[in-house]
């Protein structure tokens, strides 16, 4: 597995994986991994992933998984439904 963001990032996830026998490598740019965990979606080359590689992000979903994207979509909801975005 690979955790992008430095050796102090996601310490709980790192410890849980190591306890389960996973092996870590720290080359964040490497495409050799079974699991890659990262804060930023841009750290993942989605088109280069093999079908057996797992990452903690989904491609092309920022419209609902980022604060900006979710806020924009909630504001646009008024065009489709009679709701007050501020009540969410």
Account of the 3D structure:
The chain has 88 residues and is of the alpha/beta class. The protein is 26% helix and 8% strand. Strands 1-2-3 form a three-stranded parallel sheet, with no helix packed on it. Helix 1 links the parallel strand 1 and strand 2. The termini are far apart. The mean pLDDT is 86.
Annotate the secondary structure layout.
Blueprint: E1 2-3, H1 11-19, E2 35-37, E3 54-55, H2 62-65, H3 67-76
Beta fraction: 5-15%
Alpha-beta content class: alpha/beta
The N- to C-terminal Cα distance equals 37 Å
Q: Can you tell me the overall shape?
A: elongated
Instruction: Count every helix, treating DSSP H or I runs of 4 or more residues as helices.
Output: 3
Largest sheet: 3 strands, parallel
| Whole-angstrom Rg | 17 Å
Describe what is shown at a glance.
This protein is 26% helix and 8% strand.
Defining key terms:
88 residues; 3 helices; 8% strand; elongated; alpha/beta; 3-stranded parallel sheet; single chain
């Amino acid at each position: 597995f690979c955790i992008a963001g430095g050796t102090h990032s996601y310490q709980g996830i790192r410890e849980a994986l190591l306890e389960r026998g996973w092996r870590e490598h720290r080359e964040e740019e490497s495409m050799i991994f079974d699991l890659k965990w990262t804060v930023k979606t841009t750290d993942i080359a989605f088109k280069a992933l093999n079908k057996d590689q797992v990452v903690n992000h989904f491609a092309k979903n920022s419209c609902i998984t980022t604060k900006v994207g979710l806020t924009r979509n909630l504001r646009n909801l008024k065009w489709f439904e009679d709701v007050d975005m501020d009540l969410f």
